[in-house]
Every structure is written in C-alpha cells, then in structure tokens.
C-alpha cells in the first residue's frame, strides 16, 4: 500500500427558484507526488500537486408542469406533464496549478425534455478548449435518452 496524502476540499452552491436556477461547485485537490514504477508516494516537502475543478450551471425550465390545471392533476404510474429545461454549463479542470497550459475548459449548451419523472431526452453541444495551444478546440454533439423503471 502506498503512503502519502490525497486530500480534497470543496464547496457547492445550489439555487432553484422555479423556473430558474444555478449551481456552482469548486474542489481543490492536494496530492503527494507518486514516483517509481511501484507508485510509491513521497512525502517530502515540495512534492505536492495542487489541482482545481470548477463547474457552473444556469438553467431555465418551462412547460406543462407550470400550468395550474396540470399541477392539481393526479399523476398515475410514470405520467408527468412534459417540460423543457435549457441550460448552459461551464467546467474547468486544472490538474496541476503549478504547471501552465494544462487546463481544460468545457462549455455546454443543452436542452432536457422531461416526458415523465423517470424519462428524459438530453441534447448537449459541448466545446472543449485546452490550455495547451498544440491541442485544438473540439466540439461534440451528444444525445442521451434515459428511462427508469
């Protein structure tokens, strides 16, 4: 077993005042450097890697769930008034704060369509930006369907 510390400190904030809301989370990491093929941790002063991850999301929700006549309606099985949620998200990861140009930033614009409490369609457009100028910006389109039972 390796010895050495691997600590995480963080906080998060969540605000939701329907139909708008936001979340923010930040985590700081402090890890002793691992050396050698056996990955033995060294605990000498100065062999600590500091990292940081942050996420911010803002969202707006609309749809049938906000109509009073639907709010009072009995919900049988998995039925739920269809609603939509648009959001924008910012993620940033810096694996070593003492090294320049190693961070990754991801911007996401997305739409969630809630068909039921356990069923949703999610469509995201992600853009990955890298601190290293040798890595080019990447874009991806992601669609995901979730169904729970």
Automatic annotation (TrEMBL):
It comes from the Bacteria. This is Porin. The lineage of its organism: Bacteria, Pseudomonadati, Pseudomonadota, Betaproteobacteria, Neisseriales.
């Amino acid at each position: 077993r390796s010895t050495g510390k691997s600590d995480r400190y963080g906080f998060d904030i969540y605000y939701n005042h329907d139909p708008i809301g936001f979340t923010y989370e930040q985590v700081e990491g402090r890890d002793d450097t691992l050396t050698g093929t056996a990955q033995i941790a060294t605990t000498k002063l100065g062999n600590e890697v500091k990292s940081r991850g942050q996420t911010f999301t803002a969202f707006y929700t609309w749809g049938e769930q906000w109509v009073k006549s639907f709010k009072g309606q009995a919900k049988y099985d998995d039925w739920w008034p269809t609603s939509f949620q648009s959001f924008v998200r910012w993620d940033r990861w810096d694996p070593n704060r003492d090294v320049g140009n190693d961070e990754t930033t991801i911007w996401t614009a997305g739409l969630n369509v809630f068909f039921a409490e356990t069923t949703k369609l999610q469509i995201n457009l992600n853009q990955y930006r890298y601190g290293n100028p040798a890595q080019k910006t990447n874009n991806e389109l992601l669609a995901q369907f979730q169904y729970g039972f």
